[in-house]
Amino acid sequence: MEDLDRRLVGLLLQDGRMSYTDLGKATGLSTSAVHQRVRRLEERGVITGYAATVSPEALGLPLSALISVTPFDPSDPDDVPQRLAHITEIEDCYSVAGVESYILKVRVAMPGNLEDLLARIRSAANVSTRTTVVLSTPWEGRSASASV
Amino acid sequence: MEDLDRRLVGLLLQDGRMSYTDLGKATGLSTSAVHQRVRRLEERGVITGYAATVSPEALGLPLSALISVTPFDPSDPDDVPQRLAHITEIEDCYSVAGVESYILKVRVAMPGNLEDLLARIRSAANVSTRTTVVLSTPWEGRSASASV
DNA sequence: TGTGAAAAGTTAAGAGA
DNA sequence: TCTCTTAACTTTTCACA
Predict the structure, then answer these.
(1) Residue in B47, B61, B81 closest to A52 by CB
(2) pLDDT in tens, A76-94
(3) Residues B57-107: tens digit of each pLDDT
C-alpha cells in the first residue's frame, strides 16, 4: 500500500467524517483523486466502514469486564462464538491460545447486570468463566493501525 | 436520553458517515432538527468522534495479543499507563481488578515484533508480562452500546 | 425543540490526459 | 492514476413557531 493511502487511512481513523475536500488539502491531491482512492480502499477492504465513537458511560454502561471462557466439555463441538453471538453486551470475542479458549469484553450498567450476563453466557455456551473487572480505561481503541 | 437520540446514536454507530438528510428520513425529523440533536450529542460527550474502521490484516498487522501486566516493585509509584502511552502498538489499556494490574491489547505484524514489543513494555514500565496470543477474532467492536 | 428556506460547500460521475 | 467540470446533493445558518 502506498504512502498516500496510508495517510488517507490515518486521517480517516482520526476523523471519519472528514470531507474529501479537506483530505485533498491535507494530502495535496485533488478532491476527486481522494474520492477515487478512498473508494478503492473501501473496495479492497482496507477501510471496512465508518462509525461514531460513543462514550459508554454517557450511554449508561460504565462497567466493563474481561471474561475468560473455558468449555466444560472439551469433546463438545466448539461453536461457542455462535452460541454467544446474540448476547449484545459482548463487544469483542477473541479465540485465544491460553488456558482459556475465549476472552470476551463486555459492558453493562452495574454489577447486578454482570452477574446476570455471566449466567446467560454460561448456560448459552456450556462454559465456565473467570471474570476480570475493568477499574479504569487509560485509553481504548487507539488504533495501532495509526502507526502504519 | 431520549429515544430519538438513542436512535440517532444507533444509526451513527452503524454508519458514521450517514448524512443528516438520511438520518432525518430514518427518524422522521427534519434535516436541521437532526443536525441540532447530533451537535448536542457531540457537545454532551455522548458522541466523542467518528472514525473509519480498518482491517488490521489489510494494514499488515495480523497478529493480536492480550498482555497481562504486573509491576515488579509494588512500592513504585503506579504510572504504568503514562510509561506505556508512547508505544503505538498498544491499542487498548485497561486497569483491572485481578492478579495483574493492567491488561493491554496489542497488534503487530509478526511474532518477532511481539517479542520486541514485550521487551519494550517490560523495560519502559518495569513490569512482568503474561501474553495470550489471539488466534482468531469471531467479532470485535460490536458496540454493546448498540443495545441501548 | 422544532420547521423551512437559502447560501455555501461537498459528492459523485464522466471526459480527457 | 490524475485533473477538471458540472449536476445533484448536503451542510450550515438563520428567522420564526
Answers:
(1) B47
(2) 778 999 999 999 999 999 9
(3) 999 999 999 999 999 988 877 899 999 999 999 999 999 999 999 999 999
Which ranges in chain A are annotated with CATH 3.30.70.920?
Answer: 56-134
Strand D closer than 7 Å to the CB of B31? yes
pTM greater than 0.85: yes
- CATH code 1.20.1560.10 for A3-44: no
pLDDT of residue B1: 67
Residue B88: closest CA among A13, A5, A143, A136: A143
What secondary structure letter does DSSP report for A111? H
Fold that domain A56-134 belongs to in CATH: Alpha-Beta Plaits (3.30.70)
CB within 8 Å: A96 and B132: yes
- What are the phi and psi torsion angles at B70 (to 5°)? -130, 125
Give the nearest partner residue to B145 out of A16, A45, A56, using CB atoms. Answer: A56
Q: Where do you find CATH 1.10.10.10 in chain A?
A: 3-44
Interatomic distance A58 CA / C5 C1' (Å): 35
Q: Which helix (H) or strand (E) holds A9?
A: helix A3-14
Q: Look up residue B44 and give its DSSP letter.
A: T
Residue nearest the C1' of C1 (CA based): B33
